[in-house]
Amino acid sequence: MQCEVKQRTTNKFNCLATTKCQKPTSPLVFSHAGEFQCNKCMQNAEGSKSALPTTGPFTIYAEINPTAGGHPGVIGWGSSGDNFVSLRLIPWHGNGGIHLYWKANGQFVELAVQADGVINSGWKSIAASWDKSTIKIYMNGKLMGSKGYSGAFNAVDKSGFCACVGEPGRTHEAFQGKMRHVQVLNRALADSAVKDLPMAHAASGVKEAGLTPPLVFSHVNKFQCGKCMQNSEGSNADLPTTGPFTIFAEINPSAGGHPGVIGWGSSGDNFVSLRLIPWRGNGGIHLYWKANGHFVELAVQADGVINSGWKSIAASWDKSTIKIYMNGKLMGSKGYSGAFNAVDKSGFCACVGEPGRTHEAFNGEMRNVQIMDKALSDTAVKGLPMADSGGSSAPQLKAPLVYKHANSFQCNKCMHNSEGSKADLPTTGPFTIFAEINPSAGGHPGVIGWGSQGDNFVSVRLIPWHGNGGIHLYWKANGQFVELAVQADGVIKSGWKSIAASWDKSTIKIYMNGKLMGSKGYSGAFNAVDKSGFCACVGEPGRTHEAFNGEMRNLEIMNKALSDNEVKALPM
């Protein structure tokens, strides 16, 4: 049998035979994909049991989101005092740097490089390698520095392995923040191969929740405004806090005035705001921000923007020019190359512009809210969801997609009921259901479902399956019960994985991490007409006591049964 390491996405392995997948093949010797919180030695048991490179060569890789500066260790192993290797962050004149060093038989070796922003909050990737002749350090896939060295390397004591701590024993310098996709390889990867590591190729290091760079925030489904909305999603996103940026939203206003559309930052200063204005009764769009006490704005006439009916608005700044768009058309621009400061992401609001001005909340509906950490070109803005439709009222989910929620959210109760109940869910089939999950508890937790209580519903849930875990798709239609349950080893354990289920009106299928786990023929009834019973994190309607506990993201429902190859191509 063979196993192919899926470097691009997770620490899962694609088994090319039906027997149980064994350990990953060289050069990957350690992989922990799931996100975890740092402040002490983590993953010690995993690392000490793996085939770590104790004499070189090696590549060390991790994605980090720091919450504190200092000299925090990222990863290391070996013995305390001598014969170890350590990768850590350093202040480097306040801008941040990366420091790889080791001690072998009393000889100290190091390479330190400047890496601006590495100690700041926000996800980024760091990597270090040694091919027995050259030491290299990378940030976000870019080579930051190198030096020649062909001497000793000795880190034989694997029991000293720690993620979140660098040099063994220096637990007082533990990394503070979050970490994910920790990988150790027993080979020095080429520069091009480092670029291909999970998120290293992203322009800003952002590749979270299946958002394709430069997209850093996306809320596709329609929601009602009238107050601050999507605060938790936005405050957890990698918003552009110093520019450049593009802000996009589709809106359907129900009242005029000066309503805010989207904004973030601090109240009074250091914020950005996009809002609508009356503009002599015809309507206009107003982008403004305040940075370190300096006020900047661009207001343009946009006839009809405050009237009811769907239209798209967008605003961008590339650090030299501010632009505003309506329905994909450039409405106005002005030059500006000064300051932008919107660091406080906790002030994020959809439906409110300037932080604190909740009395000017947008009234109406909103959907397809997107924020990019890049100023899109005029042509690219035209390509945004409905920007070229002149205000088409159709939700802009590309067929066969009828429901999508990309951003990560915490489960333990029914979630996103209003989004799902308003979507064009497949109520009679066919369908594909897809989600990425990170469980924190076992049991029989529901993942997603809709329909009526007791009869005429569909449900996807997890099951213990002899302690190894399984996936269970079942429905009841006009009193008839239908089900398919498959073994899916590890699905109930912590760590991100994807699950999917489909029915093409003749065959039911279940997948895990893009692999078909089982199928069975069925061509009878399916009835899940009551969309008001929709729940993410709960499967069968009404069984809220079996709610999924953990995180979920990239939830997608299609009104078509995707092919096996199409399921493999889904986000993660």
From TrEMBL:
What the entry lists under Gene3D superfamilies is as follows: 2.60.120.200
Name assigned to this protein: LamG-like jellyroll fold domain-containing protein
InterPro entries given in the database record: ConA-like_dom_sf (IPR013320)
Q: Which domain of life is it from?
A: Eukaryota
A Pfam family hit: Laminin_G_3
Q: Per the UniProt entry, what species is this protein from, by scientific name?
A: Symbiodinium necroappetens
Q: SUPFAM superfamilies, from UniProt?
A: Concanavalin A-like lectins/glucanases (SSF49899)
